[in-house]
Structure formats: structure tokens, C-alpha cells
Amino acid sequence: MGKIKAICNFFGLLLAIHGQLWGQSLAELPTHPRGLIQQKEINGLREKIKNEPFKSLFESIRNEEQRLSGVAKGVYDVSTLAKYQAFIYMLTGEKSWALKTYSNITSLSEDTIFVRNPFSKGLTRAHVLRELVYAYDFCFEGFTDHQRQFVNNVLYDLMSSVNNNMGKMANYHLESNWMGVRYGSVVFAAVVLDDVYLDQSTEPKSVLPFLWDTQKRLQDHLNVAFTANGWFVESLGYQVYDCNFACPAIIALQNTFSSNATFYLENYAPNMVHALDQHITSIVKLQNGNSYGIKADLADDNPTIGLSQFAFGLRLFPEKLTPYLYWMVDYLKNEDVFQDDLLLLTLYSMDKESSNPASGRYLNYVDETTGVVFFRNRFQDENDIVACFNTSSKRFHGHAGPDNLTFRITGLGSLWVVGAGRTGEVAGQTNLFPDGNWQDQKGKNVESKLIEYVFEQDGSGSVIGAGSCMGVKNHTRKFAADYSGKAGAKAVFIISDSSENGKTWRLNTPEFNEVKILKNGFLLTTPNGSTLKGIVAGKQVVEVKVGKVRYGGSTQDHNPGIGFGGKYYSYNKTIDIACDGNITVIMTMQPKGDKHPNME
Question: Please, which residues bridge with residue 226 across strands?
Fold first, then answer.
């Protein structure tokens, strides 16, 4: 009976879609916008931007449009420029912005490298599709019928292209972010485009078949890409990239079919309901390369993050999360640095009370499926401290870096412990290594095991994992985080390794940190003067060496380096400590000027 009911519900949905999108005529002008927002919201938005903070947010977008209009050349930037221009039109009603939008769409329609090349890189085509769907939706009333027809047909062809294949280097595994980008952009387009403006002279055209197919394919992807605890299997950065396509699609589905509970997140993508849990816990308010937000760089991810998920979440995720999301938006936004997410904030920010996520038990997070554990001391400012331990206990297709039993540390105004970046090479990993020439070697994608973990109310805790990507035999690592202050430090971390053949204990820190070798360990000093002291327990004198490794290894494409403080850095400093199978390192963190407790 359950299966029959599900089939009936699905056909009911198709009939609803048919009734709303099929058979439109020019006498029945489609209603726009209906993607990120609805027509009934426009007047309220136009009033909202007359007052702070939305007045400043909107002005920042206008300034960015002016800057981008002078430098935009590639399809990425030109399509984003068209989006901004259409957004400005929608909130001002000034016809000149619609003309600018249409001009850029026209120029993009002639691009033969990506837009008119159905075998070019699908991620680029999907980006252009999404941005121009935004533009069409925002600028609908500013276009003439002729312009609407032109834009619809250009985007229909591009939607067909993205739906058919993702071109060069595509990853077609269902878990892959490529599939979220693919189906998210197509669903978004299929909801927003209008049959009534499609050229039917050579063959029948309709958005309906795309919508029937891809909304289900997007759903299938989201429910395997996220685990039951909400961890995105390719790590946090890829989650945000994926969801920047999936979230608009789901919001558009909800806007268009508001009476149908099929597209409520808890029904459509129940695993995704928890997608913000680890996202909240992991992020520290630090300036990265071009915005604000730094997180753990697991798999082959980088530390840069933004606030788009929280902005989308204000509209999409369960209302019980809204106070925490609103707090995170305020935490991460900064008027001194332009963020593309300001557009979303202008649309979705609400004057509601926020709640500090610490009150919602966000100081810790664990995903037992993939073996990721977070420990956080508080939610306040750039001096918050976050530690992450990763066992990679289950590996999925794509973006599975060799980072079993690694840890990351961020906070006290800086980035302390990182991984290798976008590479399979092991030299950039913070881990235990065997003897041999492993400097230029790639790791083994060996699954490890999350053995146990304990959380305390203040965010402290401990975790034990086993397994090695580095070729270390019988490697078990215990990691403990203590934020209680009882030891006389802001944070104490203990890393205890046991193995048969571990010979080098390595910590990777970004090149902007200073490293001083101590007789029994090391001292890191960050640009703001905070310090991290590491000592080897039970040793009077140890062999410590400092080296250098490129972040991202030999990878050139999509490897910006480590974004921090408005700059990008290309190298890690490596700290190597000799050991004989077993080693315990105790690390304390202190703000500038504070002395470290004696942990020897």
C-alpha cells in the first residue's frame, strides 16, 4: 500500500506541475520572480533597502556591479554581472538595468567555448545557467516579449546541454558534487523558464520533462551525498558548492508548488536537514582570501568558506534552526569585504532574535559514518577555537584525500594546523609517517576506524581512531581537546600515537606562522601574536626539523593556496619530530602575551 500511495503522490505532483507550467499563452503572462523569491515580496524588499542594514548591503552590490562591469571578461564573471544587474533592476525598477542585463546575456549566448559547446566543462556551463536563470527571473518585467523569447530559448538550450552531460573531467557518481551542480541548475532552470516563450517552429519544446526527471535525480543525489548526521561525504567546501546549486532549486520548487509537501526539506532530502549542524560548529570568523570564514581542510578541500548556506537556510531549513542561522549570518558578514552572499542576505535576512549556537549544543559534532569529530570552545569572535579529528572511516568516490587520523586546529585569530590541500600527496598531511621516501608519494585510500569519542559540556572531549593512509602499521591515534582552563591555557590538545613503524610525527602549519624549535618540541607564533607550544611528553631532548611543502602538492588547477587575511599563501611549514613507533605531543594555545603552563 505504501508503494502504491507513493506512486499516486508522484503522479499527483506531475498533474500539479502540468497545471501550473503547461499550456501557457501570451494572454496569461507568467508570474515572476518565482525562483529565490516571489512577486508578492518585491514591494517589501524595495522598502527594506531604504533602511539599514539592507541599505548598505544593497549599496555594496551596486558597487560590486560597477567594479565587475569594468573587468568582467570570462563567462563566469559576465554571467554573475548579469545577475547583479537584474537584481538591481528588480529592486529599483530602473529600465536601464534590464537593458544592461539583456546585453550581457546576448553576448554570452554567442560564446562558443562554453555556452554553445555541449561538451565543455559542465561545472562552468551550470554556473552560467544558474546565474542567467537568476537574471531572467529577476528581470522578467523589465524585458520585452521579444527579449523574453530570446533569453528563454538560449537558456533552454543551455539547460538541455547541462542535463545531457557534464563534459570534460565529469564525475558521474551519484554522491559527487558534480551531480548536485548538474541537477540543481537544471531543476532551477526548469522551474523558472516559460514554455510560452519557447520557439516551437522546428520541434515541440517544454520544460516539463526536465522537471519531471531532474527533481527526482537531484533528490536521489542529496540523499546519498549527505549522511544521516548531515555530513557531506566530499567534505564541507564541496557541500557549500553543491548546495549553492541545490538550495535555489529546492526553494524554487517550494515557491512554485507551495501547497505540496513533497518539497519540504524533511520530505525531499531528510539527510540534508542536518547539513548545517557541522557547518555551524566548524566555522571560525577569520578573514580568508576574499571573504570571511575558515574551516577544517579535510579530503582535498581548502579552508575557505562563506555564509551562503546560512543565508539559504533562513528560507529553506526548519524554523527551529533560524535563530542559530541568523546568529551565524551576523557572525560572518563584514561590510569591509564584498561577499556574493550579500544578495542572499538582502533577500532573506530577517529581524528576528538570534540565539548563540552554544545554547543549541553546537559545540561538538560527530558523524560516525565518515568518522569526523569536532570540538569547539565557544561562539563569540575570531578568537573562538575549533579542533577537528578525521578518521575517514568510510571513503566515497572523488575528493577522498589521504587524511586518516589527521587533525586540524583553528582559532585565537589564526589558522594553526592544516592538511595538504587539493592533492593526493601525503607530505602536506599532519600525521604519523614510516621510514622511507614518502615526501613525493601519494597516500593509500585505506579506510580507518572511529573507535570511540567523548564530549563534555564545554566543548572539550576526546576521540580514538585507527588506520593509516601513510603505510604506518597498526596506527592508533588518541586526540583530546581541553577548553576548561584548568591547566592555565586557553586550550590544551594531546595527541598520542602508537604504532609498529612510525618514525616521523609531522605537523603542517601555514607559512605565515613563525616556527621556533625547542629542545623538546616547538613554538608557533601567528601574525597576531598568539602562540601554540608543543612538547613531546617524557622526553628531555628530541630531534625537530622544520621544512617546507607546497600546499596542494604538485596540483596546479583550482589550487589557490591557503586564503588568510585577504591574501593567499602557497606553502606550509612542516614540523617533523623523530619517534620510534610511539609518541605523545602536548600542545597549549595562548593569546599574545600570555605564558604557557609547564606541561613537561
Answer: 232
**Residues 554-570, mean pLDDT to the nearest whole number:** 89
pLDDT band at 13 (very low <50, low <70, confident <90, very high): low
Q: What pLDDT is stored for residue 555 in this prediction?
A: 81
pLDDT of amino acid 24: 43
Q: Is 281 helix (H, G, I), strand (E, B) or coil?
A: helix
Q: Closest by alpha carbon to 408, among 513, 298, 482, 515?
A: 298
| Per-position DSSP letters for 432-480, written without gaps between them | EEESS--TTPBPP----EEEEEEE-TTS-EEEEEE--SS--TT-EEEEE
Contact 254, 269 (CB under 8 A): no
- For residue 226, what is the DSSP state? B
Under DSSP, the state recorded for 174 is T
In this model, does residue 488 exceed pLDDT 90? yes
Cell digits for 502? Answer: 612510525
Q: Who wins on pLDDT, 114 or 333?
A: 114
| 41 confidence band (pLDDT: 50, 70, 90) | very high
The C-alpha cell at 579 is 619517534
Contacts of 364 (CB under 8 A, 6+ apart): 281, 373, 374, 375, 376, 455, 459, 461
Residue 517 DSSP SS3: strand
Residues sharing a CB contact under 8 Å with residue 107, sequence separation 6 or more, in sequence order? 78
End-to-end Cα, the chain, rounded Å: 67
Residue of 259, 234, 557, 238 whose CA lies nearest to 396: 234
Contact, 278 vs 236, CB < 8 A? yes
Q: What is the pLDDT of residue 29?
A: 67
217 pLDDT exceeds 70? yes
What CA–CA distance (Å, rounded) separates 573 from 514?
9
- Among candidates 114, 226, 109, which has minimal Cα distance to 166? 114
Distance from C-alpha of 48 to C-alpha of 346, rounded to nearest angstrom: 8
- The strand pair at 461-466 and 449-455 is best described as antiparallel
The reported pLDDT for the residue numbered 28 is 59
Instruction: Report the pLDDT value the prediction gives residue 401, as an integer from 0 to 100.
Output: 81
* Cross-strand bridge partners of residue 476: 466, 498
Residue 136 pLDDT = 98
Q: Write down the pLDDT at residue 27.
A: 42
Q: What cell was used for 443?
A: 597516500
Distance from C-alpha of 70 to C-alpha of 92, rounded to nearest angstrom: 22
Range of weakest confidence among 98-112, 433-447, 515-529: 433-447
Evaluate whether 13 touches 258 at the Cβ level (below 8 Å): no
C-alpha grid cell, residue 587? 600542545
Which of 229, 243, 218, 364 minimizes the C-alpha distance to 311? Answer: 243
Q: Please tell me the distance from the alpha carbon of residue 475 to that of residue 469, in angstroms, as a whole number.
A: 10
Q: Under a CB-based contact definition with an 8 Å cutoff, are residues 223 and 271 in contact?
A: yes
Q: Going along 295-430, which residue ranges are E strands? A: 364-367, 372-376, 385-390, 406-411, 414-417
Q: Give 11's pLDDT tier (boundaries 50, 70, 90).
A: very low
